[in-house]
Amino acid sequence: GAGAPLRVYACVDEREEAERVVLEIQALEAHVPLEEIAVFYRVNAQSRPLEDALRRARIPYHIVRGRSFYERAEVKDLVAYLRLALSPDSDEDLLRIVNTPRRGIGRRSVEALLAVALAEGTSLFRALVSPALEAKVGARARRAMRGVHDLIADLHALTLEERSPAAIVAAAIRGSGYVDALRAEGSAEAEARIENLDALHTAAMERGEAGASLADFLEEMALTGEADDVTDASRRVKLMTLHASKGLEFDAVILVGMEERTFPHGRAYGSGSGGEGSDPEAMAEERRLCYVGMTRARRELVLTWAGARLLMGRRQVREPSRFLREIPEALIDPACRWQRRRSRVFEAGLGVGQGRRAAFEALAEEAEALAEEALIPGPGEAVVDYTFDQRPPEERPSQVARRGARVWHRTFGEGRIVAVDGHGTRARLTVEFEGVGRKRIAARFVEIR
Hints:
Elements: E1 7-11, H1 14-28, E2 37-41, H2 47-56, E3 61-63, H3 73-86, H4 91-97, H5 107-120, H6 124-127, H7 139-160, H8 165-176, H9 178-185, H10 188-209, H11 214-222, E4 237-241, E5 250-255, H12 280-294, E6 297-306, E7 308-311, E8 314-317, H13 322-325, H14 354-361, H15 363-370, E9 406-409, E10 413-421, E11 428-433, E12 437-442, E13 447-448
């Protein structure tokens, strides 16, 4: 028989979109088996917020024709750098990254490093700068080993300064040269891996905003994995890219990221700024891929899009995909009452609360605050330090974070400062939030009352 009308949902950002996916799955589960529910996305990096939300909701899932976000090689490599930032003497982590990306430290040089560490009874980190290595490895390898040592020492210093998880992730990505090495490959696979590193940086930003330290962030990732309370491994929601969906069918499909430059992907625009861009063939392929995804649904199809996404460390505002706008209104469930332009997303017709509307309006302000930690620039892109207040002195806010001051945070609500570490926008506050407890958070994310 005929399927149900399409459901289309506009969301504030990728986090709310992931929450919407959870709600849809919970509603579908009443009449659709979990294994007959699939979530599609354009690129692998989009799975991270979805996996986090599903894990929190204890919904079992399986990545089809791919790996879970936290099991991807580049993510595990960066996590090794982060663990070394906390514990430089972690030999296992150092062995993983000592020549990742490739920096001229070959197998024989690593064997020499191991031998020196064993002979001196020290860690591999300390052995990297041991004089005993000079006679065992070449000049190029010695320089590379010194560089690895210095990078780890610099990252460790950031942890001692209690810098945010995002700042340390960004420093690890830059200092390691990981993104530069991937860009030099110039392949679609390398671009996908860069997107995964960006998604890890975004996760660190989100956790840092909530007051988490790097140690907290790493602990949460260590506990992350596909739901482990599944008795029947087949009863899992399926997550996959649109390319992986070819040839498959499901009773219900949720297709996320239906925004311009997410889907269709930014590559389809070529160097153009709008319309069909300068690559009509690529745009046509994106449209065919959208058709493939939509036609994988036997009975129910849900489409979501986000008004803003954190990408490359910056909050980027999005418009709904042209593929959404091309769907006849008659096919869409009227109860959704979705809007076809971002500027109208949070009008009363959507039925969202004042809090959600205020959150969306705050995104532009948040983007500037987060720019300090946006350390994954595009090729040739300058990095601006927004922590320097360029306004005239008479226009700068006079409020100063002091112990005992009352503050407001858009997630945790009202609170009182119990400790201040640092100055200005770089200050880290310890705040006792009413009904939430004590959180350590960056000063720029609270409003002093």
